[in-house]
Amino acid sequence: MTTDPARPFGRVLTAMVTPFTEDGSVDLAGAQELAAHLVDRQSHDGLVVLGTTGESPTVDDAEQKTLLEAVLDAVGDRAVVVAGVGTNDTAHSIENARSAERLGVHGLLVVTPYYNRPSQAGLLRHFTAVADATDLPVMLYDIPPRSIVPIEVETLVRLAEHPRIVAVKDAKGNLGDVAWTLARTDLAYYSGEDMLNFPLLALGAVGVVSVVGHLVGPRLAELVAAVESGDLVKARAVNESLLPVYSGVMGGGQGAMMIKAALRELGLPAGPVRPPLVDATPEQVAKLRVDLAAGGLSL
């Protein structure tokens, strides 16, 4: 498996759910089935395991290890597997990173520490410490709607000097900051907010880490390719066709809940969400069916 240095994790990745059984335990066989489906039938270059959509805060360390082992065994020979290892504790994040490296993952996703509200100096120290801990490439995860603190442009410029910090998953919603960071660094940007896939790609993002990719991987690949070829008319048309899918899955702000509902409707492994999240109501599922049908999908 080879990667393009300009897009170190590929073009289209999905932030994969963590399938659970009805009793709440991790469904390892289901995770393997879903991972294979995404890579083999949804045209994915890679998977991000144990990110936000993977409900990582409620998956303990032992479960994380067995989940990564299962996904690597299923698709690790033909897809990039990126492990979400970031927490709001630098020491714990380093432990997670080293454990993931020993398992054989191909890269690390490191989220902005949440709840603590560190300064930019704190962010610089945290991300650098995690990147120093392994030989794996790192994708920073900038998501202030969940972490409160954004990674500011000047901090990103300094972090880009680290040889292993190579990419950003952007869910900040600040296109100006993205433009400035792209102008001042060689960081590879990945859209981490499906509704902004098209504008981020047009600014220079190299790919997506998507939630709706569980359902529409080939169309996201088409969107990326159209932007890359300079065919913005086609890209806009593809993006517009996906808007109902984006809204149906992400409109309520609980992507894990809604994408798991969609996967269950399709007969794919997902299971329930873990508390404090709650599963979609029948009314929410009914609306989801309407939205996805408007986007060319039927459940």
Report on the structure:
- Strand 2, helix 2 (61-75) and strand 3 form a beta-alpha-beta unit.
- The chain has 299 residues and is of the alpha/beta class.
- The protein is globular and about 45 Å long.
- The longest helix is centred in the C-terminal third of the chain and has 19 residues, at 232-250.
- Helix 2 (61-75) runs parallel beside helix 3 (90-103) and helix 10 (232-250) packs antiparallel against helix 12.
- Helices cover 48% and strands 12% of the residues.
SSE order and pairing:
Layout (H helix, E strand, L loop, with lengths): L11 E4 L12 H14 L4 E4 L11 H15 L4 E5 L5 H14 L3 E5 L8 H13 L5 E5 L1 H4 L5 H7 L5 E6 L4 H10 L3 E4 L5 H7 L3 E4 L2 H16 L3 H19 L4 H11 L16 H13 L5
Parallel strand pairs: 1-2, 1-8, 2-3, 3-4, 4-5, 5-6, 6-7, 7-8
Helix pairs in contact: 1-2, 2-3, 3-4, 4-6, 6-7, 9-10, 10-12
**Structural class category:** alpha/beta
How much helicity do the residues have? Answer: 40-55%
Major sheet size, sense and barrel closure: 8 strands, parallel, barrel
Number of alpha- plus pi-helical segments: 12
What's the average pLDDT?
A: 96
Report strand %.
5-15%
Low-confidence stretches: none
Widest sheet, order of strands: 1-2-3-4-5-6-7-8
Oligomer: single chain
- The count of strands amounts to 8
Order of H and E elements: EHEHEHEHEHHEHEHEHHHH
Dominant shape:
globular
Rg (C-alpha, Å): 18 Å
